Amino acid sequence: MLSKSAARAFFLGGTALCAVAFLGLTVDTFARIPAQTHQGEITDAVRRGKDLWDRSNCMGCHTLLGEGAYYAPELTKVFERRGPVFIRAMLTDPEKMYPGQRRMWKYDFSERDKDDLIAFFQWIGKMDLNGFPPKPTLAQMATTTGLATTTDRPQIFNQLCVACHSLGGQGGQVGPALDGVGNRKTPAEIAAWLADPPAIKPGTQMPKLPLTVGQRQELTAFLSTLK
Amino acid sequence: MKYESQRVAWWFFATCMLLFGLQLVYGLIMAYAHAGHDPLHPIIPFNVARAVHTNLLVVWLLTGFMGAAYFIVPEEADRELYWPKLAYVQLIALVAVGVTAIIGFHLQWWEGRKFLEIPRPLDFLVVIDVLLFIANIGMTIWKGKRMTTTSMVLFFGLLMAALLYLPGMIPTDNQTVDSYWRWWVVHLWVEGVWELIMGAILSFLLIKLTGVDREVIEKWLYVIVGFTFLSGILGTGHHYYWIGTPRYWLMIGGIFSALEPIAFLAMAIYAITMARKGGRAHPNRVALQWTVGCAVMSFVGAGFLGFAHTIPQVNRYTHGTLVTAMHGHMAFWGAYAMLVLAMISYALPLLTGRKRHDTPAASFAFWTSNVGMIAMTLAFAVAGVTQVVLERRVGMDFVTVQKEIEVHFWGLILAACLFILGVSAFIYNFIRHGKPVAELQGGAGGADDGRAAPVAEAA
Q: Which residues of B touch A171 (CB under 8 A)?
């Protein structure tokens, strides 16, 4: 039968062995992190962005690298998914972007703060995360239209507009579906609307978005084809 | 209670009750927000409620561990605490820092690092406070009449917990490095050195409550904490799958996490076997219920659910979803909350001289809170798995999915009400015990004989 001293030896020996292995792996990991996380691309803007991320306790609602709280979207790939225009609008006034929905605290971010956070997200998005977040493998099976059709849309449409509007049954439910919008509105009306929605229809839930002229032209051309 | 200075434990336990109660309030605020109602958002936005909820948990558990240590160590070392007054000073300081942190969170004074939100200046105060505590306990053991395995394991568990708080303060501007060190604190606490504390407290309770020979219990204590470190240290790897660290962590973390349930299973078998073997009918049946319950629920919550969630192929989809919250709630409840409640249940009649452990309220508290927690875990599981399927597998938008699973949070709130009812009964029982009495209880009994402590009815 096992004696108490043998049990103690098992405890001390096992612990020492594992601790040494863990420290060795830690040293090796630190040697590899700079390449895997593109540490050379950490600019001052990224540094300030991380500082804002920490100071605002964004992790108290969101996840980043899958870590944080589960109340708000995962932001590891937000730069790729939503793009800088959406992120900037969201950071300016979250409730305007998601009226009547789950609320985000309205921080008083300066324009430079927003630039810094966007730089931070862009840097995070480039990391090699061993395959996280996973691609939604059931997406093709779940819908007949499929996500493949989204490739012929302007990128800004897939990043920004679908957050609130749907097309072909896919997208948000905040604003009206955009199927057939080309029948209902002329290109001129669409262009004017995109420039400043509250000016056309006071009280609308759609905020004035920080789109460039080029982006508005691209969207107007695309939306006019939806007949 | 054999020594005057053990009485300070009551004040630590009373603080636990207060903070635990408050933790539940903030939990409810979050559950309502998840169910689609956030009327408190302008005052207490979600990230404030979240920081308060988790930090209160950590603080009340640490307070409970300290109270347990102040109760156990004099009895094990066979002497009064080395600095009895320091124990009170140290509690007051801890509460002051805790209250400052909680108020600070409401004013958005914090570090946005999950579980380590306490602002940096307060971090240093926490470390100083814990070192004072360690010194007090350490001197008591050192100057004591005997050095038992139980008290040594408890001491090293607490010492390592204090030291492992330090890596969390290493400054870095790389998010990956930040996370790497953060898990040294969080993981090596809850799946490492806190299990030493847990093993030691369970041993103490089993020695007292079952009457099984100390040598037998302490031998198995070594085996269990041996398994804990064998699996737990390299098991840290399950936090290093997806944060920008090398791919080999998937294999190392996967294998060693899969071994982690062994330590918890051993703990459960150990507690059940000793309780059976003991054959002693200790009058404090509820304390034994909490003790065995703690070992069993920690196996289910921390061991089994943790295992299921950390298999790399599964974790790829469940990482960063409500599945984590499911595992987290039952793991913390089973392993650590129930442990502190077991300790309180055992110590309270001895501290206050009131034999209220056989009341219906005590039994009601045990069963209702546990059934409530199991139901909460199920609600989180349904919400979490639905989220994983819709968001991670089908590719639906986060916000749309959250709308879909709102209904499960009403289930969670119902379960939480049951849980809160049980906890309220526990707190009610605590209050009914009253304050600690002046005269010593059970001084006549042998050191290892809890029953020989004649618990007098309070006059």
A: 397
Q: Which residues pair with A208 in a beta bridge?
A: none
Flag if A59 and B234 touch (Cβ within 8 Å): no
CATH number of A40-131, picked from 2.130.10.10, 3.30.160.20, 3.40.630.30, 1.10.760.10? 1.10.760.10
The average pLDDT across B330-339 equals 96
B275-316 pLDDT, tens digit each: 988 866 788 999 999 999 999 999 999 999 999 999 999 999
Q: What is the pLDDT of residue B448?
A: 40
End-to-end CA distance of chain A: 82
In this prediction the pTM is 0.90
Q: What is the DSSP-derived secondary structure letter of residue A163?
A: G
Beta carbons of A130 and B234 less than 8 Å apart: no
Tens of pLDDT along A157-192? 888 888 888 888 778 878 889 988 999 999 999 999
Chain A residues inside the 8 Å CB shell of B219: 2-4, 7
Pinpoint the residues of chain A covered by CATH 1.10.760.10: 40-131, 148-224
DSSP string, A66-99: TEE-SSS-B-TTHHHHHHHHHHHHHHH-HHHHST
Reported confidence tier of residue A141, pLDDT bands at 50, 70, 90: low
- Looking at domain A148-224, which of 1.10.10.10, 3.20.20.370, 1.10.760.10, 3.10.450.50 is its CATH number? 1.10.760.10
Residues of B in contact with A57 (CB under 8 A): 47, 51, 108, 110-112, 117
Quickly name the fold that domain B4-433 has: Cytochrome C Oxidase; Chain A (1.20.210)
User: pLDDT (tens digit, 9 = 90+) per residue, B72-128?
Assistant: 999 999 999 999 999 999 999 999 999 999 999 999 999 988 888 999 899 999 999
Interface-testing mutation among B29, B47, B147, B270, with chain A (most A C-beta atoms within 10 A): B47
ipTM of predicted assembly, 2 dp: 0.91
Whether residues B48 and A60 touch (CB distance < 8 A) is answered with yes
Cis, peptide link before residue A99, omega less than 30° from 0: no
Find where tokens 């810094």 sit. A116
Euclidean distance between CA atoms A165 and A153, whole angstroms: 14
